[in-house]
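Repro:
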Amino acid sequence: MLTMKDIIREGNPILREVAQEVTAPLSEEDIALGNEMLTFLKNSQDPEIAEKYGLRGGVGLAAPQLAISKRIIALLVPSNNPEKPEPLLNTVMYNPKIVSHSVQSACLADGEGCLSVDREVPGYVVRHARVTVEYTDIEGNKQKIRLKNYPAIVVQHEIDHLNGVMFYDHIASPNPFALPEDVLVLE
């Protein structure tokens, strides 16, 4: 079972590398890794398990955060709609690639956090409000998915990890709360 001690922290050079493509067909090892990453996210969102093992809650995890330079991300974005409790996103993506995106930009009102960053980093992280992502799923099938708002931001954060980019690289300096016009601020 993956725990916080398996997640490397900022400063580790692997987090700044471009991860390697995963070969098709998927290896047993890559499938098992994807499943472990998704299990970590499920555990991190379960209050009892998270407390027992000292897990910080996460909605996304990239293989480079485990010191594995492979283009694999796991996503588990919970729904905040009690009438539709199933997650907005619950998948593992191999070799994900953003193939199109909106002109409209968006950011989270509270900024972003990261399991590899043990500190608060204040500021708006401006990203695309909508993205279309192509990837291979855990069964080895090609998929194409359109995401908007929070799920789109989560997938962009994780794909950034595959390219050696940290979320705070997107924060404007010297004014971290400066926003270009027409940016959608998501609560």
